[in-house]
Specification:
Four copies of one chain form a homotetramer.
Chain A (H helix, E strand, L loop, with lengths): L1 E7 L2 H14 L5 E8 L10 H7 L4 E5 L10 H20 L3 E5 L6 H8 L5 E4 L7 H13 L2 E3 L3 H9 L13 H10 L9 H5 L2 E2 L9 E4 L10 H14 L4 E4 L7 H15 L4 E4 L4 H9 L4 E3 L2 H4 L1 H5 L3 E4 L12 E4 L3 H11 L15 H11 L12
Parallel strand pairs in A: 1-2, 1-4, 2-3, 4-5, 5-6, 8-9, 8-11, 9-10, 11-12, 12-13
Antiparallel strand pairs in A: 7-10
Chain lengths: 384, 384, 384, 384
């Protein structure tokens, strides 16, 4: 009997855990322990907690650590609180392994907590490259982890380069592609009314003849500029004469600079094309993306799922720096002219689909490995 | 004007900082901010704090985080407390850079705190290899740091392999060798009376005709076995018919298992050869080592300084696994027969001195670099 | 030279500190150390921090502790964080005395921190009676404090009854009355345009011919019912055919239940009479109250300042239970009919002004005492 | 079914809980939840945890908060950690009531945590008077609690004076008297060999013809003087020509000053009369007291149990200030001459037994009340 603590800290991590959990739930020798934490517990970020329960999973522990201020030491203090709780919880529960997802800052907390308790740590989606603080977090987590499930060939190679043992590295593809594949299956058009189902504020443009999606999150180490950055994007998108479904930013530091400017824009312009939405069921979101004319911002979805789905994407700024890209992406800076120009260019040509981020079976591969992988909690650096 | 926060968390880290500080103190464009933390503040670990002040340096901030219990979640909770304080302190002080030393678990706290404040982090002595949790900590700190001062050629290569940029890596040698070199200069015999100067408990054997040193610390992920392990060492050392200067263990988890058994041994055997000492001024310690017949245990000194000094060493167990060794070391397991046999073997031959860990000028090299190195707080993974 | 740490944790506490600080600032043997904390640091609660600085005072330390969740253990965990910081800060700063204001839950943090450092604690506005958790907090703070500045005769008697020494108790009146007195001096009508100066959302009714004010905060131990409670008030106020200036609730637990319902009401009814405001400079607020036709809700202002100003008030629910009242107040339950009826009754008669809460010189009295009171940090229970 | 969380934080509190638990354990509608915390979990303070388990009770949660330093902010930071854990635990467990014992600083943590969760709080042994910080803690806990079980008539009156409702106050006697009564029943002489059973250090004097007991703890707000104070006691006791059983001090701040001087004394004088013991099973301790010639120090046992047992006591310093006394006590300052003189005086006369602290049935009375008392979590101040 193997007891696995799976740490879910945000909507984005739950989306990737979904097909893993679907594949784990029926394994008889696996005891699932879901730790729901951080923004996944908070109303204004869509309370993923409720969705996990609705999907039929049980939450073993809730760990709250989000602070309400915009001080620069907020992420550090949040980690402090999270490590306190994770350390105590893992000590009491003694899981056989702990899984952490990707590269959000808060995953340092369960990773460090498990490391000092000598609990084997499984890192899903390590080895990728990006800019900013995520780059530090992701690779530090790799060096604290024991078992690795990278999504791509390149990220697997990076993990090997960092001195990890090949025997503990398994390329699985990204489970977000599983969701993308499952979601668009047999769909011809958007299966739900976005306004009825998700409400939101702003105008309610008719999206039957096409629309674009904007999702732009703050970049931690550019948090003071988040307001200026979003203003450029707002300018560019205003010029594109299409309905816009705009998503509120995530909870990272700098979020206030973005949301304040979105509110000002909304109340000042009262544009007929802009609709603002807080959160969306991940399935619905992928459908929305799939039937859109393109996506603008700095969401990882534009790079990952959209490569598989073949959706044109304008990626703004440094947040997705260094990630592998399919042929669907154009990168631009925080400049409204550049953004506008790139959007016209990428939407005017045919996009080839790509499986660099997975073929849609990552969840099953990961679940099978979690069941059977040899558990180790120590490490040895492998020189190349 | 460059403001540097130097984080000292234990006696071992202060010893290595000493020649760096001696070289920094007169640089006009450097403002030194010493953060004294962890066991460096605590009486029973020799209160390095007092020594720093006596050496003429000013302490900018004291950060306490040591908990008094032997629960497995202690290191995690200590990190939690430390991160809270370091994050707030660095936010308020805004240093231009933060330096952290080597691989004790607590250095994750200032490293993480500085990383999320986008303060450039300098890691001294990264890239080395060892066993156990230190191995995770050291490399995670490398991936969170921006500038690296490895001691050896091999450790520099390891840092490069992990994807760090060569431009930010400077091989300096280990400053502990500076201290070793300085200390033995012009010395013909032990310059102090160890019993008068350091007191201690147990017997007071005559050490004029030779003696051995024992220093064995707990190994974090073997903390439950620390008692058994020390018993083997006690057995072996009892058979060596020489005066023994034995040092109490450091504060890592498992320390109680060691100290309890040392106390039992002392009170039961009342051996005429054993003297127990808490802590020692690092200069005196190096002298003591230099004039000894050999050192037994798992101290890094046996590997590092003793290679330069040419002192025979028996290294027990996994704590120093994978570190580079000079010709002065024999490695053994926790077995009293092995320990005894190895001691006889290594002390019966001539030892050649080695400079793999430095030539005695590391402090100056590091100080000069701290003054002038180009500061960066972001990272980019360099593929080989 | 006497160093006083004055702890400001919210807008309401700063308003009361204002005339104390105005009187302290010129005393030569007093060193003022303002600790700004909690909701006083947060944007969405009006960031009193900025106002303090604008008023010419220097903030010695910022202590953040507000968490972003709606769990029941939030106040406890916030106190935990606050005590950690206050304890360390007072240890480092060694103030000669610490002052805390009134009865918000967070004042337990500086009070406990100072108590265990044997620093004399001055409690302003103890001894009053109310319902709910404030009642526990206020009297616990009294028993942890050394010197007391109650506002009223009755509250002074209560402090004596609790066993405190008469020599350490000084009835001063409430400094909020100072502000009220100062504000209305020579005013004939509202001196500012509320919409221009404070923005806000909702409609913008003409308030020249009268208006009412609503301010209803969550009640900690009724936090689950905060939504239902506000709905009753909304119903009642909707029936009163007057412009309404409605203030968003404070940050106490239950705040989400109120703000969500205010948003729903606003977006659904789009009433022409309702205008919503976040926060207001305390001077402006008092003017607004002074020229209003009455105040509804559970704000302490309705009980305290309005008794001095002679403004009709409908006090809803338990939040102000047991406070002394002037002739301007009618108390009602959370029932829309009761609220509506009480409003008509109290606004139909002439209100006599009262000085039970002070004569407008409390700030000077308190500042003079802070300068000269004999400092004690120990206690002795005085039996009656 | 009533679920009660009983908070045990030290040996002294467990001793008092013992007969309560013995009486609760068989009540069918009571679910016992023991929270074991603070020094009750730590080896060097006798690990009461093990004893609780040996006595057949189950520990529901362990809450560690003891820090390892001698900074003045240690108690504050320990409370911070404890409140964090207690708040989360009570939130998750939702007990129907929480009980806290007496006046050690750490009981503020569960009391505050429960108060903000609106859980009814039962305070056992409130209303007594003493000096120092305990005096602040005890009465603050009274004002945060809902139901009171004072030990004596005077303490009941004090609680009433503080404004608590008589309906929620029940004089029960002190359960430590239960233990005293039970222990001495049918005993003619010491039933165990103290040296065999408890080991300890120092000499091993023959105690068959009488002996004295010393137990002197640090006083929190005199912690800097703890060393000087213990030296006076050592001098006085040295002059009394009788075997001495001396107990190591508890963990309060200042403990190092005492234990260091005890060690120095022991190693320097090597007196034939002094034996030092860490901790003792409370039953054995009471027997030891009962058959002794007298007790010296500042332990509450000298005041409470010894009044019932009729044992002569010299009470030193301020720690027991203001407690009610039976005819067995003489109070003195920290002066070796006074101590010596008082000891001779009190041991030269016949002592009358007293039941001011209870008749030996407190545990049963408390258990019965816990089962049936009407639960309230709100408060109303009752004016006299």
């Amino acid at each position: 009997m193997r007891k696995i603590s799976l740490v879910i800290t945000a909507r984005s991590s739950y989306t990737k855990y979904k097909t893993i959990l679907d594949n784990l739930i029926n394994k008889k020798n696996i005891k699932i322990d879901i730790v729901c934490s951080g923004s996944a517990l908070i109303d204004k970020f869509g309370k993923v907690e409720d969705e996990i329960i609705k999907d039929g999973f049980k939450i073993g522990k809730k760990i709250n650590f989000i602070l309400d201020n915009d001080e620069d030491d907020r992420p550090g203090k949040e980690l402090s609180m999270a490590i306190f709780n994770f350390s105590e919880y893992f000590k009491e529960q003694k899981p056989d392994m702990v899984t952490v997802m990707a590269d959000r800052y808060e995953i340092l907390a369960p990773t460090i907590s498990a490391a000092f308790l000598n609990i084997p740590i499984v890192h899903i989606q390590g080895g990728e490259l990006s800019g900013n603080i995520d780059e530090k977090v992701r690779h530090a987590v790799t060096k604290l982890s024991n078992i690795h499930f990278p999504a791509t060939t390149k990220s697997m190679q990076n993990i090997i380069q960092m001195g990890e043992n090949k025997k503990n590295i398994f390329k699985t593809g990204c489970p977000s592609i599983d969701i993308a594949k499952r979601t668009i299956k047999n769909k011809k058009k958007l299966s739900f009314d976005i306004y009825k189902k998700y409400g939101g504020v702003g105008s309610f443009p008719n999206i039957e003849n096409g629309y674009i999606i904007v999702m732009q999150h703050p970049v931690t180490d550019e948090n003071k500029r988040s307001g200026k950055q979003i203003i450029e994007t707002l300018k560019a998108v205003s010029k594109i004469n299409k309905p816009v479904i705009w998503f509120w930013p995530n909870v990272d530091i700098g979020t206030d600079g973005i949301s304040t400017n979105l509110r000002i824009f909304r109340e000042k312009t009262k544009s007929k094309n802009f609709h603002f939405i807080k959160n969306m069921n991940p399935y619905d979101f992928l459908e929305l993306v799939y039937f859109s004319n393109g996506i603008i911002g700095n969401s990882s979805c534009a790079i990952r799922e959209c490569s598989f789905l073949g959706i044109p994407a304008v990626n703004i700024g440094t947040r997705q720096n260094n990630r592998e890209r399919g042929p669907n992406v154009i990168d631009v800076g925080h400049d409204h002219k550049e953004i506008y120009k790139a959007f016209n260019k990428i939407t005017s040509k045919k996009i080839n689909k790509s499986i660099i981020y997975g073929d849609g079976n990552a969840g099953k591969r990961i679940a099978d490995k979690l069941e059977k992988v040899i558990l180790v909690s120590t490490k040895k650096f492998i020189s190349l």
